[in-house]
Amino acid sequence: MGPLWYEILGKIDPLQKLNVAGGSSAYFQKMAEQGIPRLALYSGHDSTLMPLLASMGSRVWDGDWTPYASMIIIEVCIWWFTSCIHSHTLKPKRHESKTQI
Known about the structure:
Blueprint (H helix, E strand, L loop, with lengths): L1 H16 L6 H10 L12 H10 L16 E2 L6 E2 L2 E2 L7 E2 L7
Antiparallel strand pairs: 1-4, 2-3
């Protein structure tokens, strides 16, 4: 699981180091200049999701096997207060498929 977390956090870490005043357009311009993507997508199977969930601890994962077609969304939120980045948050979300066979 280490290499996947390294890849994911490698996309998030540069965002924390940006110090940009002037609103969201200036922030996104700075991201583009530094080659920081606005969106990163990864795909995998249950054998990838399970260790990823387990590594986040019991507050995120209840210990059950993920249902078919599950996904995890890690969203980085940037809060603007007086033109400054105030915080970043990670929000893992679990989607349960309602598909019946």
